[in-house]
Amino acid sequence: MSEAVLELKNASIFQRESLILSDVSVSIDKGEFVYLIGKTGTGKSSFMKTLYGDLPLKKGEGHIVGYDLPTLKEKDIPFLRRKLGVVFQDFKLLNDRTVSDNLHFVLTATGWTDKAEMKSKIDDVLDKVDMKTKAFKYPYQLSGGEQQRVAIARALLNDPELILADEPTGNLDPQTSVEVMQVLQEINKNGNTILMATHDYALLLKYPSKTLKCDENQIFEVVQKTV
């Protein structure tokens, strides 16, 4: 019996008063790699924001990594986000801190105190994304692809049950996109569940996987044709 880390039933996604998506019923099991595709403006970001607590789930059922979305309290959102790893299109790194200090900042903010454990964890996640040798550099000294690797490392810090990657290759050239995708694939092979919003269809062809599509206020699973 596979366990769902994310499940929504008959959910409606709103941005303030506007209905963005209706009758959403999706489920993602532990260990899956799932794409979320759709044109700009079809609700991918609103869907993602609902999952990490930026937008409330006003209608329908939904739970994610053990949290009930309709009854999610403001005070619980930081704890929910500790169980999620979120990777954004624009990296969101702190430019005035080194790579290592960026990660240290997150660990401190999420309650870590043991310096040796923190250093060990930072080394571990940077190793996973092949950035251990760049720990002393500042984000502005790195390429876009390297910054995104650091952002992925940051998402791994608290051993998340689910990684939400919102257009993680959106600002990258095709070659770098493939490199970042390979990092995500490797992380998924190691057991991390990933939901990745993307409009890069070349990646879907190169790395086929379960695909959900946003279109006409709905989300549905797309059956990929095998070549």
UniProtKB/TrEMBL annotation:
<comment type="similarity">
    <text>Belongs to the ABC transporter superfamily.</text>
</comment>
<dbReference type="InterPro" id="IPR003593">
    <property type="entry name" value="AAA+_ATPase"/>
</dbReference>
<dbReference type="InterPro" id="IPR003439">
    <property type="entry name" value="ABC_transporter-like_ATP-bd"/>
</dbReference>
<dbReference type="InterPro" id="IPR015854">
    <property type="entry name" value="ABC_transpr_LolD-like"/>
</dbReference>
<dbReference type="GO" id="GO:0022857">
    <property type="term" value="F:transmembrane transporter activity"/>
</dbReference>
<dbReference type="GO" id="GO:0005886">
    <property type="term" value="C:plasma membrane"/>
</dbReference>
<keyword id="KW-0067">ATP-binding</keyword>
<dbReference type="Pfam" id="PF00005">
    <property type="entry name" value="ABC_tran"/>
</dbReference>
<protein>
    <recommendedName>
        <fullName>Cell division ATP-binding protein FtsE</fullName>
    </recommendedName>
</protein>
<comment type="function">
    <text>Part of the ABC transporter FtsEX involved in cellular division. Important for assembly or stability of the septal ring.</text>
</comment>
<dbReference type="InterPro" id="IPR017871">
    <property type="entry name" value="ABC_transporter-like_CS"/>
</dbReference>
<dbReference type="InterPro" id="IPR027417">
    <property type="entry name" value="P-loop_NTPase"/>
</dbReference>
<dbReference type="GO" id="GO:0005524">
    <property type="term" value="F:ATP binding"/>
</dbReference>
<keyword id="KW-0547">Nucleotide-binding</keyword>
<dbReference type="GO" id="GO:0016887">
    <property type="term" value="F:ATP hydrolysis activity"/>
</dbReference>
<feature type="domain" description="ABC transporter">
    <location>
        <begin position="6"/>
        <end position="227"/>
    </location>
</feature>
